Amino acid sequence: MRDPARLDRVAAWQAQAIATQFPGTTLLVGAPACGAVLTAFVARHLGLPVAFVTLEPAPAWHRMHVPGPQHRAVYVDDLICTGEGARTAAAFLRAQGLTVLGVSAWISRTALAGERLHTLAPPPFQTWTPHEAAPAGPPLHVGVRE
Ligand SMILES: O=C(O)c1cc(=O)[nH]c(=O)n1[C@@H]1O[C@H](COP(=O)(O)O)[C@@H](O)[C@H]1O
């Protein structure tokens, strides 16, 4: 999402969902790249600290914050597609001694069995074919898979 003000509105909604669905959360863990940006926005609404994971070449903490094992963490992302990233991250957090309360996302293609998943909107994804030229009217989705 390119507009920070709009991102913040969704982040506020996601923060409210996390407060309701995952009470007792002490840390938000952001997915790589855009997930990290989103997570910082969400955390600001909850007054919680953040940490970020990198998944390639192997799961690791981003050096900005290596949290202790006492945390009760929620993994935050915008979209869950195959669920592989979320699963890998959750396994990493547990291996680091943290308690994983669940995963919060906007929408997911998978139920993410074995993890507690909460999404802002129900499945399924709506998928668009990228357009080269503007269609007769909005919306125009360029290079977007989901
Ligand atoms: O840009 C992306 O990484 C991305 C593009 C897209 O169209 N769909 C999509 O799910 N993603 C990201 O891919 C990650 C989820 O992929 P899975 O690990 O397959 O569930 C999330 O971090 C999403 O933000």
Automatic annotation (TrEMBL):
Protein name: Orotate phosphoribosyltransferase
Keywords: Glycosyltransferase, Transferase
InterPro entries attached to this UniProt entry: PRTase-like (IPR029057), PRTase_dom (IPR000836)
Transmembrane intervals: none
Listed GO MF terms: glycosyltransferase activity
Gene3D superfamilies referenced in this protein's UniProt entry, alphabetically: 3.40.50.2020
Keyword Transferase: yes
Organism: Deinococcus arcticus
Taxonomic superkingdom: Bacteria
